[in-house]
Design a protein that fits this description.
The protein has 25 helices and 14 strands.
Amino acid sequence: MPEAASRVVHVFAAEAGLETADELIPALQAAGQVVHEHELPPAPDVAQDDAVRLRAELALAAEAVRAAEADGGRLLLADVRGALVIPERMRLLLDERGLGWDEAWARTTRSTVSRFGCPAGEPSRPYWHVAFLEAEEPRLLEILFEINRRHLDEVETHWPGDGGRRRRLSLFREGEGRRLRLGQLAIVGSSQVFVAPPWEGPAGEILADFGALVGPALAASATPVFARRIVEHGNPPLAELLRLTLGSAWAEDPQSFARFETLAFESSFRGAFRKARRANRERLGAYLLATAGVELDPDSLVDVRLGLFAAQERPLLSALGLVREHLRLAAGGWTPPSPRTVVLARVGEGQGGDVRLFALLGAVADAINGDERVRKALRVAVLPRCDAAAVRLLVAGADLANEPGTAGSGATGARALRFAASGAVMLGTRDGTLRELQAAVGADNLFLFGLGPLETHAWREGRVYRPRDVYAIDPLVRLSLDALVGHRYAPSPGAFDWAKEALFDARDPWLVLADLGAYVHRQDEALAEFADPRTFTEKAILTLARTRRFWVERLS
């Protein structure tokens, strides 16, 4: 491949990989790479038609393959959804270029690289069912079967007669609803695969087997974050504090943060850190007042929920949590330890399902902000669309970064690391990069809640989740959900009934109602700790210091 062509990279991102791509792209460009993006935002609605979504992903894979073939560039897969580029490229080389199988396979694997978050048992919906591929893309399925046959021959050579390993390492999951395992396809079809640690549970065992099979082509690698850009460009008060404390070396040498941890226990530095955070809250407050008409109390806990607001990110969990807080405050008899400002902000362009979701979120925010009984304790800003400048203000101004996506879904992507690198404390499930952060900063410095990845997988696969039973048994769930769809928030009778129907769907893979109690409990704990400046500030400084392992300057 010519040298010029080898410096072209086509980044494919369809779900959680969008956040990873946001960090990969500037790091690739910093190394002199020419980057082309092929992106498809996740479906915003639980009811999204799987077939429509899958056809869109197939079309994007074909587009990326043809573009890379035209300019000789590499394909970099930022999430497991992109693994379909592998059989798609094989189809192009076999059927249109007339290459033999071995040559086409060598060319495909040599030019494909994958970078994924923490392993999960299965990718999030929609699944690539064999029946769908057979009906829509029989030739693609034929190629996949041949890839799998050759792959399993290698498994048999490596572990003769081990049927258990053959089943675990196969590219297809057998049984009811036979489907393609995208992560395993990516490992088999890429020259290099980076999977973020920790490698735990059944998925970790599978990765260990693949490591024995493919050797150094599979490596554990932390999710990258371009932290210098985030702090220098988006957080001037923090950048100045780092310069005064560590010298200019902090920007070039993340290891200088090794001594930064000790400053978390010095009262003078904690005071300077809180001063920088207050300056960021004031900057964010000016923006919220101008754009959303919401006045931010600079002494309040700023709780930011930033994302795509796709179904697996569980925006309705945020709505229910706010309703519960509103009801409790309006009833009186309880004074929170500190005021709280909540910001719900979506990045990227809107999609069809966003309209009714943001109408619901906006109605909840308006009811809270218009209630004189609670305005001093709780304020809510809803931002349906945020540009890059707004994102920088939100990341810098957040005291608490709210990441309630379903554990094991991959909803918590690299964006969470931006908050950590700016000194925000994290609240969320054991999903995606929060699992990495847990290993890096310690569980005591995070506010983790809810079911874990193995539990959510077991609940889904065993079909034991019965949301109507949760509603019947748990008064917190019942009161919050009834109020959400009732006259207090809905502009007309039945306007928000769609939310209750979605949450009552036993096939809902995101288990929203199951985690509501734990979610609001941990938010209460975060608010109580924020009222104790020493405890909360120590957590924030340690989180910032220990993110150094994720920092990158460039990627070749």
